[in-house]
Amino acid sequence: MNTFENKQDFSExxxxxxxxxxxxxxxVYKDIYPRSxxxxxxxxxxxxxxxxxxxxxxxxxGAVGQKPEDAVQCGSALEILHNFTLLHxxxxxxxxxxxxxxxxxxxxxxxxxxxxxxxxxxVAYRLLLSSIKGKERSLxxxxxxxxxxxxxxxxxxxxxxxxxxxxxSMNQYMQMxxxxxxxxxxxxxxxxAFYGNANDETVHSIKEFARHLGLAFQIQDDLLDLTxxxxxxxxxxxxxxxxxxxxxxxxxxxxxxLPLKDKELLDMYIRKKGIxxxxxxxxxxxxxxxxxxxxxxxxIKFHGEQAKLHLSTxxxxxxxxxxxxxxxxxxxxxx
Amino acid sequence: MNTFENKQDFSExxxxxxxxxxxxxxxVYKDIYPRSxxxxxxxxxxxxxxxxxxxxxxxxxGAVGQKPEDAVQCGSALEILHNFTLLHxxxxxxxxxxxxxxxxxxxxxxxxxxxxxxxxxxVAYRLLLSSIKGKERSLxxxxxxxxxxxxxxxxxxxxxxxxxxxxxSMNQYMQMxxxxxxxxxxxxxxxxAFYGNANDETVHSIKEFARHLGLAFQIQDDLLDLTxxxxxxxxxxxxxxxxxxxxxxxxxxxxxxLPLKDKELLDMYIRKKGIxxxxxxxxxxxxxxxxxxxxxxxxIKFHGEQAKLHLSTxxxxxxxxxxxxxxxxxxxxxx
Lengths: 335, 335
What we know:
2 copies of one chain form a homodimer. Chain A is mainly α. Chain A has helices at residues 11-29, 35-45, 52-63, 72-92, 104-107, 110-132, 138-163, 170-195, 200-227, 230-233, 239-242, 248-255, 260-272, 280-289, 292-311, 318-331; strands spanning 97-98, 101-102. Chain A has a two-stranded antiparallel ribbon with strand order 1-2. In chain A, helix 12 crosses helix 15 (292-311). Chain A is globular. The model of chain A has no long low-confidence stretch (mean pLDDT 94).
């Protein structure tokens, strides 16, 4: 039984927030020189995206009694930080596509992608700094933002380490995605809460909500690598498998008592650090017949429910309801 | 006539500061996990170096009445920021050596060098944040640090742009090195001044001192590429020429009315974007016989004197004298 059934549809409200974020982001790249540095940033930041992190910041600020619109700059700083990680991760992972378009290191080159990413961090801090002057918890927001940057790098390092380890436990995997994916959502949420000067108990609930939302989001991402329509998802189907990623699916399959033939397929994947395009359908069949895809769906559902449980401890408000609705949407997303 | 002749030798004092910086830096990489991320940072930060930036921060804090030792963390944050730029620049420039040792992207790989650099930024902000709590001008220090990060990236972008342009004016060159090299020294200096709660006029003098010190330092660096003992300097002789850099020497030579044969050599350098190892001695002869090396020496001397002129407007103190002494040392350095 879903105890947090949402009747209301918040699509329009979130669309309005997304537009505010887009406008704020535009100010950091439009007509800024040198163009060799800011054109790739324009390319990345104007390519749409869900704007999940700034929307979480704005709604969390709203849920603690602040006007969400006031937190658009803080939230946009987090969106820039997020896009910085994508830009650099794509070089490290040699990914060719992002949101259905060439990645920056492919369209330009590695040097451009490194340097544009670097300046994005500076720009993100500048935006955050400009929006928190005079706020009581300004240094808390900066501490959180900085810890988010550190943790997301450490998470990416673990992810890269895992690619050369043969055996990753579910605990190790969960720790890695907590740092690599959940942390930035947590920081987005608590920056919103700090912006609204929330008390410690509320900050804790909001942090836990975002942590679970992040876990659901990442497991969903791992699943969509295989099940999403690639033109809609913006990445190639099975890209993670080609790169030899230790995704939720691979780690979960490793825990299972697989039939011999399936075990051999998994062992080969781990030994060869990935498979070819042609081998993807066979791998999907294996993961499906051993209920690995089903397990992933259940894990997504579990973390989505946990996220909403923590939200339910907040004072009831439209923005709290919008966060509930957003959690459902993210847990059911197909792109 | 040098009106700021220093009798006193500050070597021992600066050595003591350097040790404090080294100890502070150790705390950011020693026994920190994952090692895949922090080992390259240990490699970079424990490789010595002049620690010019933190020493400038400490001495500037001292010159405005603060205990220099108290500013060691702020200064170390700037040293980390500086090393982050070196780490990423070395990837972009495909440099094989730094301080006489393999660069990180060569010893490990590009992905490691990118990610270790990224987390260094986070670590630098964390260190800065931890040391400025309760300080009146904490947000000014963060603003300055952030603007430094942005400017140094923009300076590097200009440097990369210049490599594909055939004609760079001396003005363009000076603007580029102001952003790429002087700015971090400026920020190091004014963070020290803000730390000591200096008034605006003093901050301005300190900023101008550091700007000129940075210009002298960078032109010296360009000159040392050709004149330094490579084992002492820690880089290959003529590395900039091999990379096709538009250094002070190349830009200055381009301004001159060169004999036909020399003009052809310079045109070839610009057309081919660099020269081979064998062609370096001929290029040095050409730059020397046309007084380009002498012009560089004069420019270094000029900016060194300007730096000291601005220092002379500060209240007289031991730390002010140490800054004068340091400026002389840097203008005469051979490594």
